[in-house]
Design goal:
2 strands
Length: 301
């Protein structure tokens, strides 16, 4: 690689140019592969015709009919509210349990932390299985309640390890010693010093938990029987996969204009956009913490 005069760009060799060209082409193709389905769903949600769009992104007829049908469908609103509640409560519980486990395990004066870490890591590879878990939830009286959704997966061991590594590497022991000299206890040190210094990793792990709760549907299918308590993703699954749509809970105008199958086609793309929008809106606010938190929390030193 050869440098020009000061202040000018670097001159690349022929090999560098070939590499950069191939790299650009490959990345551009990957971009198209990733972006095209997203754009297809976005434009299809504004398509007023129930026929397939094919490979074209341009709708046959621009319309907001799909969004009108969604917001006039009773279970969409209840599903949205349930998902928000499950996500907020579940993420708060996840972060609380993860912090309570990760911080003690990051303290080198905590006896037995190696044994506890081994026990935690075993659960990453072995579990009791679906039926024993269901029986535990049932015997605790948690079926058909929010606690059946948020408590069985109260902590991810992987996220705990990432957070523990962050605490271990980024919180100097001198801070603890200084705090103890000032009469600060362990809980006070965690609340007043450790957590304010750990905003990046808390934001990243919180985002992981929140997205997981927002997209979760399997636990609700297993533990929830009341349709009014279904999260949004179960409602989405019913419409897209099992084709379950209650005609008594949709707009009378749309029912008069279209049949059941046609209404599903109108609603499905719009519903995907509505279900994904909150996560897409939330991500830019946490993006600045994302790379920093993951790199610091995942690497030693």
């Amino acid at each position: 690689m050869e440098l020009r005069k000061k202040g000018r760009a670097i001159r690349h060799t022929i090999g560098d140019r070939i590499f950069l060209t191939v790299d650009f082409i490959v990345l551009f193709l990957l971009l198209v592969i990733i972006v095209y389905p997203l754009l297809y769903i976005l434009f299809a949600s504004f398509n007023g015709q129930t026929t397939k769009m094919g490979l074209s992104l341009i709708p046959e007829k621009w319309s907001l009919q799909g969004y009108v049908a969604i917001f006039e469908y009773k279970y969409i609103w209840s599903g949205y509210l349930n998902t928000i509640i499950y996500t907020v409560v579940g993420t708060a519980i996840n972060l609380f349990v993860t912090i309570c486990c990760a911080y003690p395990l990051s303290r080198r004066d905590f006896k037995g932390r190696g044994l506890i870490m081994v026990m935690c890591m075993i659960t990453m590879y072995f579990s009791g299985g679906l039926i024993p878990t269901y029986l535990v939830v049932k015997n605790l009286g948690l079926l058909n309640s929010i606690w059946a959704i948020v408590l069985p997966n109260a902590m991810s061991v992987y996220n705990m390890i990432v957070m523990r590594t962050y605490f271990d590497n980024q919180i100097p022991e001198e801070l603890l010693e200084s705090a103890q000299l000032d009469g600060c206890g362990n809980i006070g040190f965690l609340r007043s010093i450790v957590l304010p210094l750990s905003v990046p990793i808390l934001a990243v792990v919180g985002l992981f938990y929140a997205v997981n709760h927002w997209n979760a549907y399997f636990n609700a299918m297993v533990y929830i029987t009341d349709r009014t308590k279904y999260p949004l993703q179960v409602i989405l699954r019913d419409i897209l996969i099992t084709n379950t749509l209650d005609p008594t809970e949709t707009s009378t105008d749309i029912i008069a204009q279209q049949g059941m199958e046609e209404r599903r086609n109108v609603m499905k793309y719009s519903l995907i956009i509505v279900a994904s929008l909150p996560v897409l809106v939330l991500y830019p606010f946490i993006q600045r913490y994302f790379v920093k938190g993951m790199m610091i929390g995942a690497l030693k030193g």
